[in-house]
Amino acid sequence: MSVVMAGIVTIFMGNPGLALMAVILGGGFQILLGLSRVGQYISLVPYPVVSGFMSGIGCIILIFQLGPLVGHAASPEGVVATLKAIPGFYGEPVWDAALTSGLVLVIVYFTPSRMAKLVPPSYWPSSWLPLSPMFSYRTPLSSERSHRDFPLLSCPHSLGTH
How far apart are CA 33 and CA 52, in angstroms? Predict the structure, then answer.
């Protein structure tokens, strides 16, 4: 769903109200399909098809995260453009973001299992956030990269009356 939403936001970048309307309509269609029990027919789709589809979505999400891993925004043009931009991402990393990402990955993957049973390692990096100003490094936040506010809920002109 997040990959679809990223595409919708990219298409309607100039008019975020249309993107919000597309999300609301998509959610409405999902509710209607759920209430009409259409989901039972997924059992007719072979397992290798579902597995391949999910693996493909996972690869797309992973590719889109390679830029933010070193402090750059993912390319809004798509997967191929992001793959072409990877040498630039890693040629000029934002070192604060790259070091933070590396430290988080080390903690998540190399935490001893005894400690991971007490507190999942994915929770630990969020406990550092209050301490980050003490270390005076600057990692760009996704909210700072976006120059648009959340759109107000309104009917687009193309769908309603003027």
Answer: 23
pTM: 0.59
Position 64 in a domain: no
Q: Which amino acid is at 144?
A: E
Q: State which amino acid sits at residue 50.
A: V
Exposed (0-12), middle (13-18) or buried (19+): which is 131, by Cβ within 10 Å? exposed
State residue 124's pLDDT score. 74
- Residue linked to tokens 């009409």: 36
CB 156 within 8 Å of CB 21: yes
Is 156 inside a domain boundary?
A: no
- Domain of 26 in residue numbering reads as 1-43
The predicted-structure confidence for 93-123, as pLDDT tens digits, reads as follows 888 888 888 888 888 888 888 888 888 877 7
Q: How far apart are CA 72 and CA 7, in angstroms?
A: 19
